[in-house]
Protein backbone atom coordinates (compact mmCIF):
# COMPACT_ATOMS: atom_id res chain seq x y z
CA UNK A 1 0.00 0.00 0.00
CA UNK A 2 1.09 3.54 -0.60
CA UNK A 3 0.08 4.74 2.85
CA UNK A 4 1.73 3.17 5.93
CA UNK A 5 -0.42 0.94 8.12
CA UNK A 6 0.91 2.63 11.26
CA UNK A 7 3.37 5.20 12.50
CA UNK A 8 6.40 4.15 14.47
CA UNK A 9 9.60 5.79 15.74
CA UNK A 10 11.42 2.49 16.35
CA UNK A 11 13.88 3.15 13.54
CA UNK A 12 14.84 6.57 14.88
CA UNK A 13 15.07 5.17 18.41
CA UNK A 14 17.39 2.39 17.25
CA UNK A 15 19.58 4.74 15.23
CA UNK A 16 19.53 7.33 18.01
CA UNK A 17 20.93 4.76 20.46
CA UNK A 18 24.30 5.44 18.82
CA UNK A 19 23.97 9.13 19.68
CA UNK A 20 27.44 9.85 21.08
CA UNK A 21 29.21 7.82 18.40
CA UNK A 22 26.99 9.39 15.74
CA UNK A 23 27.95 12.92 16.83
CA UNK A 24 31.63 11.95 16.77
CA UNK A 25 31.20 10.39 13.32
CA UNK A 26 29.42 13.52 12.11
CA UNK A 27 32.36 15.66 13.24
CA UNK A 28 34.82 13.32 11.52
CA UNK A 29 32.82 13.38 8.28
CA UNK A 30 32.50 17.18 8.35
CA UNK A 31 36.26 17.56 8.90
CA UNK A 32 37.12 15.09 6.13
CA UNK A 33 34.66 16.74 3.73
CA UNK A 34 35.86 20.30 4.36
CA UNK A 35 39.57 19.45 4.43
CA UNK A 36 39.37 17.06 1.48
CA UNK A 37 37.44 19.57 -0.63
CA UNK A 38 39.85 22.40 0.20
CA UNK A 39 42.96 20.31 -0.52
CA UNK A 40 41.48 18.92 -3.73
CA UNK A 41 40.46 22.35 -5.04
CA UNK A 42 43.83 23.88 -4.16
CA UNK A 43 45.81 21.14 -5.89
CA UNK A 44 43.58 20.83 -8.95
CA UNK A 45 43.18 24.59 -9.35
CA UNK A 46 46.95 25.15 -9.41
CA UNK A 47 47.42 22.16 -11.73
CA UNK A 48 44.72 23.40 -14.11
CA UNK A 49 46.22 26.89 -14.16
CA UNK A 50 49.62 25.47 -15.07
CA UNK A 51 48.11 23.39 -17.89
CA UNK A 52 46.22 26.41 -19.24
CA UNK A 53 49.45 28.41 -19.81
CA UNK A 54 50.57 27.84 -23.40
CA UNK A 55 54.10 29.00 -22.62
CA UNK A 56 54.55 26.35 -19.95
CA UNK A 57 57.07 23.87 -21.39
CA UNK A 58 55.91 20.79 -19.44
CA UNK A 59 52.27 21.39 -20.36
CA UNK A 60 51.95 18.48 -22.79
CA UNK A 61 53.90 16.07 -20.61
CA UNK A 62 51.81 16.79 -17.50
CA UNK A 63 48.62 16.62 -19.55
CA UNK A 64 49.58 13.15 -20.72
CA UNK A 65 50.73 12.28 -17.18
CA UNK A 66 47.29 12.93 -15.67
CA UNK A 67 45.53 11.28 -18.60
CA UNK A 68 47.10 7.86 -18.00
CA UNK A 69 45.27 7.16 -14.68
CA UNK A 70 41.94 7.73 -16.46
CA UNK A 71 42.72 4.77 -18.73
CA UNK A 72 44.80 2.52 -16.48
CA UNK A 73 44.44 2.15 -12.74
CA UNK A 74 46.70 0.35 -10.29
CA UNK A 75 43.70 -1.01 -8.41
CA UNK A 76 42.69 -1.05 -4.79
CA UNK A 77 45.41 -3.43 -3.61
CA UNK A 78 48.29 -1.31 -4.92
CA UNK A 79 46.86 1.89 -3.45
CA UNK A 80 46.30 0.16 -0.12
CA UNK A 81 49.90 -1.08 0.00
CA UNK A 82 51.29 2.33 -0.95
CA UNK A 83 49.18 4.21 1.60
CA UNK A 84 49.86 1.79 4.45
CA UNK A 85 53.42 0.60 3.79
CA UNK A 86 55.00 3.63 2.12
CA UNK A 87 53.07 6.59 3.55
CA UNK A 88 51.99 4.90 6.82
CA UNK A 89 48.45 6.25 6.61
CA UNK A 90 46.83 3.32 8.37
CA UNK A 91 44.18 4.55 10.87
CA UNK A 92 44.80 8.13 9.76
CA UNK A 93 42.26 10.64 8.48
CA UNK A 94 44.82 11.77 5.90
CA UNK A 95 44.01 8.58 3.98
CA UNK A 96 40.46 9.93 3.56
CA UNK A 97 41.49 13.49 2.66
CA UNK A 98 44.27 13.23 0.08
CA UNK A 99 42.81 10.84 -2.56
CA UNK A 100 40.37 13.57 -3.68
CA UNK A 101 41.99 14.47 -7.02
CA UNK A 102 40.28 13.73 -10.33
CA UNK A 103 41.71 14.14 -13.82
CA UNK A 104 38.28 15.07 -15.16
CA UNK A 105 37.94 17.94 -12.69
CA UNK A 106 41.40 19.23 -13.67
CA UNK A 107 40.40 19.20 -17.34
CA UNK A 108 37.15 21.03 -16.53
CA UNK A 109 39.05 23.73 -14.62
CA UNK A 110 41.62 24.09 -17.40
CA UNK A 111 38.86 24.46 -19.99
CA UNK A 112 37.13 27.08 -17.86
CA UNK A 113 40.34 29.11 -17.55
CA UNK A 114 41.08 28.92 -21.27
CA UNK A 115 37.55 29.86 -22.37
CA UNK A 116 36.55 32.45 -19.74
CA UNK A 117 39.77 34.19 -18.63
CA UNK A 118 41.51 36.13 -21.41
CA UNK A 119 45.27 35.86 -21.71
CA UNK A 120 45.46 39.65 -21.76
CA UNK A 121 44.28 39.76 -18.14
CA UNK A 122 47.08 37.42 -17.07
CA UNK A 123 49.61 39.33 -19.15
CA UNK A 124 48.57 42.65 -17.59
CA UNK A 125 49.12 41.19 -14.11
CA UNK A 126 52.61 40.06 -15.13
CA UNK A 127 53.41 43.49 -16.53
CA UNK A 128 52.52 44.94 -13.13
CA UNK A 129 55.10 42.66 -11.52
CA UNK A 130 52.88 39.85 -10.22
CA UNK A 131 54.35 36.36 -10.10
CA UNK A 132 52.54 33.17 -11.06
CA UNK A 133 51.19 32.45 -7.55
CA UNK A 134 50.01 36.03 -7.04
CA UNK A 135 48.45 36.10 -10.50
CA UNK A 136 46.56 32.92 -9.74
CA UNK A 137 45.37 34.05 -6.29
CA UNK A 138 44.51 37.65 -7.17
CA UNK A 139 43.37 37.42 -10.79
CA UNK A 140 42.55 33.88 -11.93
CA UNK A 141 41.01 32.42 -8.76
CA UNK A 142 38.29 35.11 -8.29
CA UNK A 143 37.28 34.74 -11.95
CA UNK A 144 36.98 30.94 -11.80
CA UNK A 145 34.76 30.81 -8.70
CA UNK A 146 31.76 29.28 -10.59
CA UNK A 147 33.91 26.37 -11.76
CA UNK A 148 35.50 25.99 -8.31
CA UNK A 149 32.10 26.04 -6.61
CA UNK A 150 30.64 23.41 -8.95
CA UNK A 151 33.62 21.07 -8.66
CA UNK A 152 33.89 21.78 -4.94
CA UNK A 153 30.29 20.70 -4.46
CA UNK A 154 30.92 17.46 -6.34
CA UNK A 155 34.08 16.86 -4.32
CA UNK A 156 32.22 17.52 -1.08
CA UNK A 157 29.43 15.10 -2.02
CA UNK A 158 32.01 12.48 -2.92
CA UNK A 159 33.82 12.85 0.41
CA UNK A 160 30.54 12.92 2.33
CA UNK A 161 29.21 9.69 0.79
CA UNK A 162 32.51 7.80 0.67
CA UNK A 163 32.89 4.85 3.02
CA UNK A 164 35.23 2.37 1.33
CA UNK A 165 38.51 4.18 2.23
CA UNK A 166 37.38 4.37 5.85
CA UNK A 167 36.56 0.66 5.76
CA UNK A 168 40.08 -0.07 4.50
CA UNK A 169 42.17 2.30 6.60
CA UNK A 170 40.26 3.36 9.75
CA UNK A 171 40.21 1.05 12.79
CA UNK A 172 39.61 3.44 15.71
CA UNK A 173 35.95 4.09 16.64
CA UNK A 174 36.63 7.79 17.28
CA UNK A 175 37.84 8.16 13.66
CA UNK A 176 34.92 6.32 12.06
CA UNK A 177 33.04 8.54 9.58
CA UNK A 178 29.28 8.72 9.48
CA UNK A 179 28.77 6.59 6.39
CA UNK A 180 30.75 3.66 7.76
CA UNK A 181 28.88 3.91 11.08
CA UNK A 182 25.52 3.78 9.29
CA UNK A 183 26.62 0.75 7.28
CA UNK A 184 27.68 -1.04 10.47
CA UNK A 185 24.33 -0.25 12.10
CA UNK A 186 22.52 -1.80 9.15
CA UNK A 187 24.90 -4.77 9.18
CA UNK A 188 24.08 -5.34 12.85
CA UNK A 189 20.38 -5.49 12.04
CA UNK A 190 20.93 -7.91 9.16
CA UNK A 191 23.19 -10.11 11.30
CA UNK A 192 20.63 -10.37 14.12
CA UNK A 193 17.87 -11.27 11.67
CA UNK A 194 20.04 -13.92 10.01
CA UNK A 195 20.94 -15.46 13.36
CA UNK A 196 17.29 -15.50 14.39
CA UNK A 197 16.36 -17.28 11.15
CA UNK A 198 19.01 -19.97 11.78
CA UNK A 199 18.44 -20.48 15.52
CA UNK A 200 15.14 -22.25 16.34
CA UNK A 201 15.30 -21.03 19.94
CA UNK A 202 14.90 -17.44 18.80
CA UNK A 203 11.54 -16.06 17.75
CA UNK A 204 12.25 -14.69 14.31
CA UNK A 205 8.83 -13.06 13.92
CA UNK A 206 9.06 -11.21 17.21
CA UNK A 207 12.65 -10.13 16.56
CA UNK A 208 11.84 -8.90 13.07
CA UNK A 209 8.93 -6.88 14.46
CA UNK A 210 11.11 -5.27 17.13
CA UNK A 211 14.11 -4.63 14.89
CA UNK A 212 13.41 -1.98 12.24
CA UNK A 213 14.86 -3.23 8.98
CA UNK A 214 13.38 -1.29 6.09
CA UNK A 215 12.48 1.74 8.20
CA UNK A 216 16.02 1.83 9.60
CA UNK A 217 17.36 2.06 6.06
CA UNK A 218 15.19 5.13 5.47
CA UNK A 219 16.25 6.71 8.77
CA UNK A 220 19.92 6.08 7.96
CA UNK A 221 19.45 7.61 4.50
CA UNK A 222 17.96 10.79 5.99
CA UNK A 223 20.72 11.04 8.59
CA UNK A 224 23.43 10.76 5.94
CA UNK A 225 21.88 12.75 3.08
CA UNK A 226 20.10 15.46 5.08
CA UNK A 227 22.98 17.98 5.04
CA UNK A 228 23.47 17.47 1.29
CA UNK A 229 19.81 18.35 0.62
CA UNK A 230 20.22 21.49 2.73
CA UNK A 231 23.47 22.61 1.08
CA UNK A 232 22.53 21.94 -2.56
CA UNK A 233 20.23 25.01 -3.12
CA UNK A 234 23.04 27.35 -2.06
CA UNK A 235 25.43 25.85 -4.65
CA UNK A 236 22.91 25.26 -7.43
CA UNK A 237 23.59 28.43 -9.43
CA UNK A 238 27.36 27.83 -9.33
CA UNK A 239 26.81 24.16 -10.10
CA UNK A 240 24.86 24.97 -13.28
CA UNK A 241 27.29 27.68 -14.40
CA UNK A 242 30.31 25.49 -13.80
CA UNK A 243 28.94 22.54 -15.75
CA UNK A 244 27.94 24.61 -18.79
CA UNK A 245 31.53 25.65 -19.51
CA UNK A 246 32.12 25.68 -23.25
CA UNK A 247 28.44 25.43 -24.18
CA UNK A 248 27.08 27.36 -27.15
CA UNK A 249 25.68 30.72 -26.05
CA UNK A 250 23.01 32.45 -28.03
Report on the structure:
The chain has 13 helices and no strands. The protein has helices spanning about 10-15, 20-50, 60-70, 75-85, 95, 105-115, 120-125, 130-145, 145-160, 165-170, 180-200, 205-210, 215-245. The model is unreliable at about 245-250 (pLDDT under 50).
- Beta-strand share of residues: under 5%
Tell me, rounded to a whole number, the average pLDDT.
82
Question: Helix coverage percent of residues?
Answer: over 70%
Number of helices: 13
Task: State the order of secondary-structure elements, H for helix, E for strand.
Answer: HHHHHHHHHHHHH
Let me know the number of strands: 0
Distance between the termini: 49 Å
Structural class call reads mainly alpha
Oligomer class: single chain
The largest sheet, given as strand count, sense and whether it forms a barrel, is: none
Radius of gyration: 23 Å
Shape verdict: elongated
Low-pLDDT stretches are 246-250
Notable features of this structure?
250 residues, mainly alpha, 74% helix, 0% strand
